[in-house]
Amino acid sequence: MVRPAPAGRTNDADGTPRRARRPLGDRLAPFVLLLPAILIILVFRLWPLALGVNFSFTGDGDRDGTSVGFDNYVELFDDPVFRIALRNVGWLVLLLPVAVAIPGLLATFIFLRVPGHRFYRSVYFFPAVLSPVIVGSIFNLLLAFDGPLNRVLGAVGIAPVDWLGDSKVAIFTVVGVHVWATFGMALVVFLAGFATLDPALLDAARSDGASLPQVIRHVIVPGLSRTIQFVFVTTMIGMLTSMFGLIFVMTSGGPGGSTYLPEYYIWIQQGQLNRPALASAASTVLFLLMLVVGLAQVALLRRSGRED
Question: Where is the ABC transmembrane type-1 domain (predicted)?
């Protein structure tokens, strides 16, 4: 027997009740609420990005405002300093797992309530509130050739290292300082992710006699897969766009341009050499790098999560 449709509903041919259409205002409400955010993204993000890309195809100096095609991009990739900056981006990508693993492991120990975990939580976050200028100045003193660190190394029989003056070491020194200064934010994100982790899974793993590495690999990492993806992407973006202050204070791009990154190169071209079109081209390359690296990271992490 086919039931009669309730008031406000009609039946399909087979007798299945069909919901009445919602009023137009109810259907448009979500789009109206999203409209301010969409307008902000369009006006303050996408439109300036499009203007910058368009500007990168114009000339500088005597050719200001005239179309030059891909000349700026050809000049970019012919510039050995910009190629060094791209090489350093490659080093950042290789060092990224370390930069993510450090706050991840520390957050794990805090979550497992190691002795003093409350104290560590506040101490680990403290560097994140310091200005890059302050951080860079402090480490300039600590890492000077005749500074405290090299004196400690000398006391144990290790030759001093020119942390900021050796072209083979300087970029890793600056990256290490950046990781120290910023991992507190990633730590907070990981701790927020731990709040969503099912404690029953941890209890079950402990009951089965799983060791800490096994708990991390088989329970914590799969349970925090989305958090890990987020931290990977945001940490990479931070490395590519937030190291200017440290580079400026600690090395000024030296020695020999070995600590250049694209953002520092952009500032030199725009602020020092007055070449805004070339700087726009470098900005476009930097944007594409962040987009490709971010999408590749998410794809790899999702695939590894499915395999686990």
Answer: 86-297
Inside any domain, residue 16: no
Q: What SS3 state is found at 235?
A: helix
What's the Cα-to-Cα distance from 302 to each of 29, 288, 299, 305, 306, rounded to whole Å? 33, 21, 5, 5, 6
Could you read off the pLDDT of 264-290 as tens digits, one per residue? 999 999 989 999 999 999 999 999 998
The answer to the question of residue 201 being in a domain is yes
Q: How many domains does the chain have?
A: 2
User: What does the pLDDT look like over 78-101, one tens digit per residue?
Assistant: 999 999 999 999 999 999 999 999
- CA gap 164, 171 in Å, rounded: 8
- Chain centroid to Cα 45, Å, comes to 18
74 and 49 together in one domain: no
Measured CA to CA, the distance from residue 179 to residue 100 in angstroms comes to: 9
pLDDT at 17: 54
Asked whether residue 9 is assigned to any structural domain, the reply reads no
Residue 270 in any domain: the answer is yes
pLDDT at 308: 57
Backbone φ and ψ of 294, nearest 5°? -65, -45
